Structure prediction request, 311 residues.
Amino acid sequence: MKVITITLNPSLDKTYLVQGLLPGKLNRVQTVFEDAAGKGINVSKNIQSWGFQSVALGFLGGYVGRRMEELLDQVIQCDMVQVEGITRINIKIKDEITGDLTEVNEPGPSVGVEDIEKLVFKLKDAIGPNDIVVISGSAPKGVETSLYQRLVDEAKQKGAFVVLDADKGAFIQGVQAIPGMIKPNEVEVQWAMEKQEPCTLEQLIAFGTSKIQNGVEWVVISRGKDGAIFMDKTQTLIGKGLKVEVKSPIGAGDAMVSGMIFGKCSGWDFESTCRFAMAASAATVVTEGTKTADLEVVKQWIEQIHLERWN
Prediction:
């Protein structure tokens, strides 16, 4: 069993730590973290560092793409489609005095039809028996959101368990193919339900229930500091948010996805898997930049996770 991730619009993340951000003035950076990132890539790095095999697929281009390959080759196996244009750089500025995080994300390169077909071929060629495929993140220019539905279908036809973690149109399209697991956050559920106001807990659960009834096996709805909702066909578990010193919220949702996959690869029951996923998210939040949370650190958080059954 291996975990194949697809990141359509990866990025080179640069995290700058400053002592008091001064808008409109010169700011001197104290520390810089540079990481090859993107939602699927983050999942691959987690899974590989925790002891299971993972392969990252996606699009890379230009000098930034080459730098990302240098970084990724040190930690995971990659099979990227090379495209024209330059992979995006995302800037994260962390004010260590206020704790505020300012993000500046580039759009990324355009992707052509031939590039898409190369990616689909690589996906079908990579999938083996009992593999898990993770399709996550935003679409670059030139990619229709219908690709997410196609990717889910292609992976399912090869017998893979498919995880979808996308937003807006990509989520709407992808979920129509009924993946094995979905992980929207509460804002994405609000968008999918076309609601003007934030969803209540009951509305979030009702949304998840409708997806379970439609054939999705696992629904995970992340709620930021309020925790997460975990659902399968027999139970709904409410994970309470932990009070932690937030060093970087970046990658917390990807860590939760990684935790669910890790539990599935390990053959754990649903509740143990959800508990580990919550712990993985917490361990990531207290880690600077977009670094992978150490497995031993994740395990240390497990005892602090509180899950309640929803009746």
